[in-house]
Amino acid sequence: MINILHETSEKLLQTINDARQRFMNIPPELWDAKPAANVWSKKEILGHLVDSAANNHLRFVRGQQADTTFVTHGYDQDFFVNSQKYQDTPAAELIELWYAYNRQLAQVIKNVNPNKLKVMCVIGTHEPMTLSFVITDYVTHMQHHLEEIFKTN
Ligand code: NI
Hints:
By secondary structure, the chain is mainly alpha-helical. The chain has one domain: dinb family like domain (Four Helix Bundle (Hemerythrin (Met), subunit A), Up-down Bundle). Helices cover 63% and strands 7% of the residues. The chain is built from six helices and three strands. It has a three-stranded mixed sheet. Strand 2 and strand 3 form a beta hairpin. Helix 1 runs parallel beside helix 6, helix 3 packs across helix 4 and helix 3 packs antiparallel against helix 6. The longest helix is centred in the first third of the chain and has 22 residues. The protein is globular and about 50 Å long. The chain binds nickel (II) ion (NI).
């Protein structure tokens, strides 16, 4: 059980280190470009990943305080992205924020109490899932969006 935490933590670090390198090759106009008014730009996708980090940070920590079940709310992704005006934030600032936040999350994940991995998390209207799944799915979700960011480069 402890292995999955170390593996996920390492995978997260490797993913963000690789991505940060590749981000250097994306020029500002590509970060800004919106394929359509209602489709996120690369900057907005990265902003969404900051929101994912912030929301999951609390799940990872608070999930460990529960005995058997942790009930929490979901979040409205478009509202988060639009209300924070990620489109107006310089890409370099978003990259730093995203990178630093995820360094800390790698630390959080590595130190999750293995006895809590089976805590059931009820997030908004989703089916209940184990804390273990919430943690591994966090990285899978990130990789999915990173592929979107790199798709057109
Ligand atoms: Ni997403």
